[in-house]
Amino acid sequence: AMLRLRLLTWDVKDTLLRLRQPVGESYASEAWAHGLRVQPEALSQSFREVYGAQSRRFPNYGQGRGLSSQQWWVDVVKQTFRLSGVHEDRVLTLMAENLYHDFCSARNWEVLPGAVETLSQCCQRGFRMGVVSNFDNRLENILSQCNLRHHFEFILTSEDVGFAKPDGRIFEKALHLSGVPPEQAAHVGDSYTQDYRAARAVGMHSFLLRAARQGEEPEAPPEHVLPTLGHLLALIEK
């Protein structure tokens, strides 16, 4: 039976947009602009450590902890460079500010294959659409820069809402905003835990975008799995 869906909510990172290059490459280029040689691999590794520690210490970009997301990210960038051997405060501050703004532009983000076509087809078929993403408040601007913003009625980020996926309250906010009951809504994302399982926990339908990487995580039933975004409408309309 065809699903009677009225609302589709979307994850963004690695569902609709991805980074053009590894974080370490972007950081290394910025360092190079200041005459500093730092290895991209070293920076990528430092970034993973620092980002993990900062996320545990100040979840959801320091939301509710008196920290702005910009300050949260500036700290991450500076600590990443310090861990990779750069210690001069003036240059650390400059690089951190530059990178914070760079990651707000289409220069660092690219649209995933099939995303534009799929979003356009969903809009043409009359689905209402929104974004539900664990992202900071730069997201709306990034979506505009990448020419995707116009597909969506609303953009909910974990920073703005105050709850991060898999917390069901961010999905409930989307349902409330659109006035659509959960059984007439579906979420599309690439994380089993944060997207697929979390949306189902509030009673929504859910589709799991599965790029080639299959982990050890539990599997969604095949009728909920998207090998590519292009498979979405066929699954909905089956």
TrEMBL record:
<comment type="similarity">
    <text>Belongs to the HAD-like hydrolase superfamily.</text>
</comment>
<dbReference type="InterPro" id="IPR023214">
    <property type="entry name" value="HAD_sf"/>
</dbReference>
<dbReference type="GO" id="GO:0005634">
    <property type="term" value="C:nucleus"/>
</dbReference>
<dbReference type="InterPro" id="IPR044924">
    <property type="entry name" value="HAD-SF_hydro_IA_REG-2-like_cap"/>
</dbReference>
<dbReference type="InterPro" id="IPR051828">
    <property type="entry name" value="HAD-like_hydrolase_domain"/>
</dbReference>
<dbReference type="InterPro" id="IPR011949">
    <property type="entry name" value="HAD-SF_hydro_IA_REG-2-like"/>
</dbReference>
<dbReference type="InterPro" id="IPR006439">
    <property type="entry name" value="HAD-SF_hydro_IA"/>
</dbReference>
<protein>
    <recommendedName>
        <fullName>Haloacid dehalogenase-like hydrolase domain-containing protein 3</fullName>
    </recommendedName>
</protein>
<dbReference type="InterPro" id="IPR036412">
    <property type="entry name" value="HAD-like_sf"/>
</dbReference>
<dbReference type="Pfam" id="PF00702">
    <property type="entry name" value="Hydrolase"/>
</dbReference>
